[in-house]
Amino acid sequence: MTSKNDDEKTLREVSASGSHFQVGVSLGKQCKDMALRMEKRFRGSIAAIPGMTVAKAIAFSKKTLPLTTRFYPEYVEELQGYADGTGLKFDLVYAMVCDYPGLGKKGCTDIAVNSQWTKEDCVYAAHNEDVAPYSISDVAIVRVKPSDEPGFIAVSHGGISPTTGMNNAGISLTGNAVVPNDVRLGIPKDIAVRKVLREQNLFDALKASMPEGRGHSYNNIVCDSNGELYSMEGSATAFDAMYGDDGYLVHTNHYLSPRMWGFEDNLHTRMSSIIRYNRARKLFKRELGHVDIASFKRVLSDHVGYPESICRHPNPAVEVDDQAVTIFSAVFDLTNKALWLCAGHPCVGTYRKYQL
After folding, report:
1. Would you say domain 109-355 falls under CATH 3.60.60.10?
2. DSSP string for residues in 54-82
3. What does the alpha-carbon distance between residue 38 and residue 324 come to, in Å, rounded to a whole number?
4. pLDDT in tens, 14-32
5. Which residues of 284-297 are buried (b: 16+ CB within 10 A; e: fewer)?
6. Which of 299, 172, 179 has its CA nearest to residue 225?
7. What string of DSSP letters covers 134-168?
């Protein structure tokens, strides 16, 4: 898609199959170094929250485990296997996927489009992952085939926590962080992300994306190979299912639905999100009717509002731990079951194809 750059990056590729426990063990062994780095940073992040300690975080997370086990026991088995594979204690591994006030994801920009607007009649779901700069060393491309679920390909933090993915039933999950004001004790938002990737139809995928009893939520974008596009804007206690009735949708990190406006924690802190949303919509409208992978590179590489642009770069005015940069850009082709991935900034990188 573009000329190679000396700074171009690649992501580790791992795979696992078998029972959920076996999947977890395999991913844990292959990504042990990632898990240990993430553990170290988790401890530092928790210590930075006033009044919080790792022991308190573990105690807090244990309160959500019964809810998670009822909602998705198979993923609890994966996490138990992952703990064995990495040598970490399960209580700590589980605590690392839970939600805490004052601790969360940074950003992201997402686009989804159905075949009415694409050059080759494909359905696409695209995502820029905007998190702390160091996180690129701790994400992997994973291919997973549990013995009782559809196989999927995803980009996962630590190899175990998918942030974007697509399964062989033609269901994709992308999305972005929102910051609601009603966070509570409940099912962690990362658990819903993983459960979407087990579902074989749109109905079950939408249900999985917004479970009752959740403690927090992403804006989960759920699409299928028929071209059904849903942006599931959620908080802990409310949601709105926003349909891509124009054949495409765009989302960043603030609530768009009037039903959800009252749950926005502080819109004053969402200026980057507002710029990225409006800019992405404007640019993507120009691509309608001839959308292909190159279209996503053009939009997702944009630098209006730099450094807090669609393609986000380090902001020198912000402390490193508070920065958000684009560590990868992913485009899922649901029609042909393929992932196009650019590791690092899409403005300089190449989108490479990974087949499911």
Report:
1. yes
2. HHHHHHHHHHHHHHHHHH-HHHHHHHHHH
3. 17
4. 999 999 999 999 999 999 9
5. beebeeebbbebbb
6. 172
7. GGGGGEEEEEEEETTS--EEEEEETTTEEEEEEET
The rounded distance, in Å, linking the Cα atoms of 306 and 146 is 42
Q: Which of 20-29, 102-111, 255-264 has the lowest mean pLDDT?
A: 102-111
The amino acid at 354: Y
CB atoms under 10 Å from CB of 137, counted, come to 14
Where do the H-state alpha helices sit in 148-248? 189-196, 202-209
Output the six-digit token pair for 163.
Answer: 């942030």
A 10 A CB-CB count for 55 gives 11
Sheet holding 12-18, edge to edge: 12-18, 139-146, 152-157, 161-167, 171-176, 219-224, 229-234, 239-243
| One-letter amino acid for residue 234 of the chain | G
333: CB partners within 8 A, 6+ apart: 122, 123, 124, 293, 339, 340
In the chain, list all ranges with CATH 3.60.60.10.
109-355
Its pTM surpasses 0.90: yes
